[in-house]
Amino acid sequence: MTRIDTSGPGRVPPTPSHTVGPFYGYALPFPGGEDVAPLGHPDTVTVHGYVRDGEGAPLPDALIEVWGADPGGRVPRADGSLRRDPASGGYLGRNGVEFTGWGRVQTDADGHWYVRTLRPGARGNSAPYLSVCVFARGLLVHLFTRIYLPGDEAALAADPLLRRLDEERRATLIARDEGAAYRFDIRLQGEGETVFLEYQ
Amino acid sequence: MALTQHDIDQEMAAEREAYEKRLAGGAPVEHHPRRDYAPYRSSVLRHPRQPAVAIDVTKDPEMVELSSPAFGERDLTAIDDDLTRQHPGEPIGERITVSGRVLDREGRPVRGQLVEIWQANSAGRYAHQREQHAAPLDPNFTGTGRTLTDGEGRYRFTTIQPGPYPWRNHENAWRPAHIHFSLFGSAFTQRLVTQMYFPNDPLFPHDPILHSVTDPAARQRLIATYEHGLSVPEFSLGYHWDIVLDGPHATWLEEGR
Ligand SMILES: [Fe+3]
Question: Intradiol ring-cleavage dioxygenases domain location, by residue (chain A) (predicted)?
Fold first, then answer.
């Protein structure tokens, strides 16, 4: 039954998730997907890392999406992440002015990825973070996690999610400050397995 | 020794049986696959062993995951929703029209959001360097499309009927014909990537990816319906497929207060 009956009062059942598979390459990644920050913005941060499987092997076919608030903690409302040229149909890239808050990047052959975005501001009760959604061949349902940036220890200590985790698990959600960039590895399984989230 | 289809069939049957036992024991219906579904071999090393940490969104309605990225007309070109017109010539194959609505769990339309699709060509070959299946590439078909849902949550694509294709999960493994879909809702928590199948495909019983959805009713929701009214005279056959996004979103919270 693929026509969903919305006439009744109850909730309708969801469409099941499936893996992204290995062949999304012409469809989902786009030039500049990882460069979310407007050009020359002083609050730009670079976050990079590796995605690894249960044996520690890098994933050359994972797709990462990052979604975050602007430095003032506001939700970005601008479209134009995938801005196109109506003549050629090709990608123009972001306009370098507006902040869409959303980025998409494929891991390279080493399982490495990066995004350059704006340092997120705090919202609600949480310490500032970037929301992350991970897709990969072999992953039947995508995985959500968060990248918290180090620095404000008081804010991290008060964060409602981080407070619930033991020290080892908590550490998987906090990027490491490398000076020029932040390092955030994603371990799908095994030693140092990243904390993944389920929203209810 | 390579796994045979028979081995995989037995594993799938065992998974189905285990699910039925869980149901009989009072466990809830499982609308989505479990991430550790071994008959799909690539899942073995790529699923977390630790349980996901539950986040109660009602405790923090400001969390950024309860909003979604925005997409607009400048993210598209006029022929992004017609995969048969993206090259100088006509692609080979049977033209199809695929249309439906994107809804939330309340049955309300998801408006103005991005729908992306990708698929194999009519010979079952993807335009992708890692794809080594020895079927012909079609110079007039890349197999990717994009659109925004309208005011009623509707989407519509014109494309080519994709072919089934072999893969290396086990010996003689074939995927039923399918179109990959990527969807955004009104909240990032509703993000969905999935696959749409075509009715009556003889490969259904053999495919561990389809059967990773162990609930039979949920599996049915992945299969489009042939709809004659959607067929375009002298041009294409029509398939209807509605998509329901799971996951909490901000509107629930407002109504729940
Ligand atoms: Fe596929």
Answer: 44-190
Residues in Cβ contact with B254 at an 8 Å cutoff, skipping those fewer than 6 apart: none
Contact between chains at B70 and A78 (C-beta distance less than 8 A): yes
Does B78 map to a domain?
A: yes
How far apart CA B231 and CA B218 sit, in angstroms, is 26
pLDDT at A200 over 70: yes
Burial degree of B24 (CB within 10 A; 0-12, 13-18, 19+): exposed
Q: Which residues 6+ apart lie within 8 Å of B125 measured at CB?
A: B131, B133, B135, B136, B137, B138, B163, B165
Q: How far does B148 lie from chain A, in Å, by closest CA?
A: 12
In a domain, B135, yes or no: yes
Contact B142 A82 (CB under 8 A): no
Q: Which two tokens stand for residue B72?
A: 């607009």
The number of domains in chain B is 1
Q: Is B175 a catalytic residue?
A: yes
Active site residue B154: no
Which residues 60-89 on chain B approach chain A with CB closer than 8 angstroms? 60-65, 67-72, 74-80, 86
pTM, two decimal places: 0.97
Residue B250 lies in a domain: no
Structural domain of B10: 5-244
- Chain B residues whose CB is inside 8 A of the A68 CB are 64
How wide is the angle at C-alpha A64 spanned by C-alphas A61 and A66, nearest 5°? 170
Which residue, A103, A132, A18, A79, is CA-closest to B117? A18
Write the pLDDT tens digit of every residue in A115-139.
999 999 999 989 999 999 999 999 9
* CATH number of domain containing B65: 2.60.130.10
Q: Is B126 a catalytic residue?
A: yes
